[in-house]
From TrEMBL:
The lineage of its organism: Eukaryota, Metazoa, Ecdysozoa, Arthropoda, Hexapoda. SUPFAM superfamilies: Protein kinase-like (PK-like) (SSF56112), Snake toxin-like (SSF57302). Residues 333-362 form the GS domain. Residues 115-128 have a biased composition (Acidic residues). This is receptor protein serine/threonine kinase. It comes from Frankliniella fusca.
Amino acid sequence: MARFYSRVSVLVVALALAVLCAAALVDGRRLPRPPRRPAAVHENYDSPPSYSSSDQQPAASGHGFSLNLEHDAGGPESAARISTPEDDKAQSFHNRAASFGFLQEGKSASRNWDGDQDQDDDDEEEQVDSSKGQQLGYEVPKGKLAGSIPDKAASQDHKHRPTYTCLLCEGEAPCTPNARPCVNAVQCYKSHVRTEEGQEIFTRGCITKTDKIALTCYTPSSSRLNSHSKRPTRASGQYSIQCCTGNDCNNGSFPELEPIRTLGEEESSGDWKLIFAILGPVMVLLLPAGVLVVLYFKRKHRKRKQEAARTIADPDTYYASDELLRATAAGDSTLREYLEHSLTSGSGSGLPLLIQRTLAKQISLAECIGKGRYGEVWQGYWHGERVAVKIFFSRDEASWSRETQIYSTVLIRHESILGYIGSDMTSRNSCTQLWLVTHYHQLGSLYDHLNRVTLNHHQMMKICLSAINGLVHLHTEIFGTQGKPAIAHRDIKSKNILVKDNGCCVIADFGLAVTHVQSTGELDVAPNPRVGTKRYMAPEILDESINMDCFEAFQRADIYAFGLVLWEVCRRTMSYGIAEDYLPPFGGLVPSDPSFEDMKKVVCSDGQRPTIPNRWLCDETLTGMAKLMKECWHHKSHVRLSALRVKKTLAKLAQSDYQIHLDVD
């Protein structure tokens, strides 16, 4: 178990570290980037600068491009150029050619760098003239080098080329043209640039040299990143240039850039993708681990729950830890044989086994199936068999002790008496509990059964006959060496009679029982502050006229209560398709929990008894039952029938009804 917990702890720590690493990576991605140099458009119409091959030109930093405006020294003329990495290569070759004297004197060469690259201040271009080139063995005719400035013939063509007037402006929209236009331009242009930071710059300019046309006008539009996010991510750069010929032809609307697709919050950043990429595998590993942990604890709980309930194949091995608790019956019987013999409900000759301080450990409680004033009843498992565990409160120890004593009586076992397994005293949650373990009957008490279903004549008679058989067995004393004393129940009611699966009944709850031995005349009434159920108390108990020294008085009180139980059963018996709803005795005459005075007034003073429905008079069997119950609840106790006489009367009624098929012999 400790090893399992250690493995789980290691797994949890590893998962926590993975989550922390993911969070750190996400935070690192969200750190602000250093500001990049904004794109700049250099423009000077009054005194344009002239650059040599070794000088550095100011360049507009962008995302992979630069925008430069170059001017000749001849006047207020301007030229715009946007260079790309490919253009940089061509310009470098151009500068090299100039350094060797391949270009005409007086011409300037410029070197442009990509906006994302740093200029190397230490890298100087070597200046050599054409004579040095000849010394090195180069024969280079003027104007024939590819990529060089046109020769004199080309310059003469430029003189005959028409010139135009162009508008000049630069800035954000609206871009207002300058009052002083550009003259002697070979072409006009207008450009639309979006910088890395999203700033839009609009430019109107002119090209005064034909060698700048290809570099400026034939540069394709660029869109380095076609989307902006709602949250700051990478910067983007876009530009578009349109060239034209004609006076003021660069007027009008500027070229449009490609629309920027705005992403949603969940798509705009790669953070979520990174989180999902890390947490996805973690969750894949965590989910099976969680399932395994749950299954482990469920299995452990089930195993602990059924540990005491499973059948033990070798009882000698099971009880080997406590030799003092191993018991054997007479002869060579083993403990298992003794238990099986003791738990039978046949001959009743076996002595119930009490295994103190061990029975509770062998029982696994499943669910509470009943609560009362004096305790609770639980369903449990013992040796793989369902049992009922009656748990007494510690204040009701007298009832537990008395019931244990009655169940331990020799020959008490009977098919109509609740099967007894054992008693134990245990501690749960620092509280002493008194356990009494019996057989389990899933149909519950007769009270619950009558509330659920209606009965036919056969079912009614089966219940009544089996219940009276148990009462007869209690009231009868068995003489002999291992005899049984006569027992009076003193708390007969529908809640203390349980229904078995076959429809028969058993009598339970002997906490108030008294015993009597005729040979000695001994009457054993255990001191117990508990009293019986007031609703079922006989008149002589209510008016306190009962003779507590006479055992027969207790037997007659049992018959009175049994007559009320007969009334409850017959009320739920169908005749001609009719049956009344369940009603406890004296229902409607007294409160749901009547006091001693309430019952005394109704039973003793008013002499009332439960009402007999008129429909019973039309049914011969129910009419006989009504007559029998009246004789049972008679006001004078000595007039009441004995338990044996009630049994014989019920058997006679069963034989006279063709709807009832019972073996009553």
